[in-house]
Every structure is written in C-alpha cells, then in structure tokens.
C-alpha cells in the first residue's frame, strides 16, 4: 500500500463514519416511525449530504483531493479538514432523539438549522482551501458551483424562513447532481 492509498483509506473511514451516523439515525427514525412527527427538510438535507459524499469520493478517485501531493503530516492534517467537516455535515442533518423526547423532526430542525447550514458552509470553504493548498485552483465550473452553493447557504442564514431553506436545499441538491453528472472517468 503506497502513501496515497494509506491516506485515502483514513479519509474514507472518516467520511464513512458520517454516513454510518446518518443512516443509523434514519434507521432509528424508521423503527420509531409511529412516534416521529416527520419533516421533509431534514430528509432533503440527508439526500443532499449523500450527493456531497458521492462527489467527494469521486474527487478522491479522480485525484482531486491533493492527497497525492502530501509531503508531510502537517499537509495531511490540513487535507483532513474537509472530510472531518463532511463527517460533521452528514452526522448532523438528521435528528437524534432520546427515549423521552417528543420526536418532532421539525422542532429539532428549527433548533439545529444554523448548525446544519454552517457545517455545509465550512465544508465548502475547506474544500476550496484544500484546492488552493494543492495548487489546483482555477476559475472553472466547479469553482462557480462551489461559490453558488456558499452564496445560497449564506442567504439561508440571512433569510430564516422554511421556504428559503426548501429553495436552498433544492438548489444545492440540483447543483451537486449536475456536478456529479459532468464528472467523467479519467
């Protein structure tokens, strides 16, 4: 196993743990569906998170992560920030209820929406920073998509309305799906 495969394995484990947390929460919601007051917005964020993970893993495969240019542990530590933020993003989109809770997804989303949006923003900024650090930045359609996603997320923070959250998550989901559809096997 070379160093890139070794580093990619650790990054994949970190991102996979976020998916595991999100899917575990979803399973718990399904098992307790009679108690749950469902809200589609956290589910939409979960779907968007899955597309983000697919996009990130595709970038790992395509060599866009910068892991092949790491020459020391400090650089690797910096490149580990985006997958950690992706873990936090995927792990925070669905609520975690305890036995005595009301199991109202809408209430939990309202209380946690800033955390969800901010982790998405931080992830986007961290991926941009890692591209800059790897010396691979250029103004292309990927940069514009990343900038558009950050702008939508910032608007969502400024306009604290459910309708804006639905519009925002829909736009972000659409941009990420479009981005995935334009990536080719190299």
Tags for this entry?
75% helix; mainly alpha; 7 helices; globular; 186 residues
Written overview of the protein:
It is a single chain. The mean pLDDT is 87. The chain has helices at residues 3-31, 40-62, 73-79, 81-92, 105-133, 141-158, 162-182. Helix content is 75%, strand content 0%. It is mostly helical and 186 residues long. It contains seven helices and no strands.
Question: How do the strands and helices of this protein lay out in sequence?
Answer:
Blueprint: H1 3-31, H2 40-62, H3 73-79, H4 81-92, H5 105-133, H6 141-158, H7 162-182
Helical stretch count? 7
State Rg.
17 Å
- Which percent range describes the beta-strand content? under 5%
* SSE class: mainly alpha
SSE pattern: HHHHHHH
Number of β-strand runs: 0
Please state the average pLDDT score. 87
What proportion of the residues is helical, as a percent range? over 70%
Biggest beta-sheet profile: none
Broad shape: globular
N-C termini distance: 21 Å
The low-confidence runs, each spanning 5 or more residues with pLDDT under 50, are none
Describe the structure concisely.
By secondary structure, the protein is mainly alpha-helical. It has helices at 3-31, 40-62, 73-79, 81-92, 105-133, 141-158, 162-182. Helix 1 (3-31) runs parallel beside helix 4, helix 2 (40-62) runs parallel beside helix 7 (162-182) and helix 5 (105-133) packs antiparallel against helix 6.
